[in-house]
Amino acid sequence: MYKRQITRDAPTDLVAAPLWGLVRSAQLEHPGRFGLIDLDGAETSGAVLAEACGCGEPQLALRGGEIQVPRLTPAEVVDGDEGTPVFDPAGTVLVTGATGGLGRVVARHLVVAHGVRELLLVSREPSTDGFTDELTELGARVTHAACDVADRDGSPPSTR
Questions:
Q1: According to the model, what pLDDT value does residue 121 have?
Q2: Which residue positions in the chain have pLDDT lower than 50?
Q3: To which H or E segment does residue 94 belong?
Q4: DSSP state, 159?
Q5: Which DSSP symbol is given to 126?
Q6: Which pLDDT score is estimated for 1?
Q7: Which of 22, 56, 135, 153 has the most CB atoms less than 10 A away?
């Protein structure tokens, strides 16, 4: 049996999406009891439906007679000398949630360990406690943007 990763261009059915969510929740509660198959309607897909049902995958799609399964794949990373990601020194690195504890740790690490020189720090509330000065002393140019990245308009909470 040939299985391949479901691609981003795979068709989706927004009407069926809530049902898929419900069944996926049931799958977590009762592993192996429920399965999800997204059919494209092609005759070749119907021909492999029995094989797909018996393959043991909790969810899959049939596209043109081909069984496709969702898989996470590692992102391609350009390796430096020590096998660490290399950041383009001419580029800007975006850090969201930058005024929170984890955001600060990440921003500081990017500057110190990876040599990042341009930072765009985005958070709901702008930083006013000297964190920018600290990063500047470490060699970074810092730009702050106060916005909620979960809000399409991007407006800060205080202006809504």
A1: 93
A2: 1-3, 159-160
A3: strand 93-96
A4: G
A5: -
A6: 42
A7: 135
* SS3 (DSSP) at 158: helix
Closest CA to 20 of 33, 3, 6, 37: 37
Q: Which of helix, strand or coil describes residue 108? A: helix
Residue appearing with tokens 């799958």: 27
Q: Which long-range contacts (CB under 8 A, 24 or more apart) does 61-67 make?
A: 61/6, 61/10, 61/37, 62/37, 62/38, 63/10, 64/40, 66/2, 66/4, 67/1, 67/2, 67/3, 67/4
Q: Are 142 and 135 in contact (CB under 8 A)?
A: yes
Tokens describing residue 145: 């943007």
The gap from C-alpha 38 to its chain's centroid, in whole angstroms, comes to: 22
pTM (2 decimals)?
Answer: 0.49
The full 3-state SS of 3-57, as one line of letters, equals EEECCCCCCCCCCCHHHHHHHHHHHHHCCCCCCEEEECCCHHHHHCHHHHHCCCC
Cα gap 26→32, rounded to integer Å:
10
Tokens of 28: 């977590």
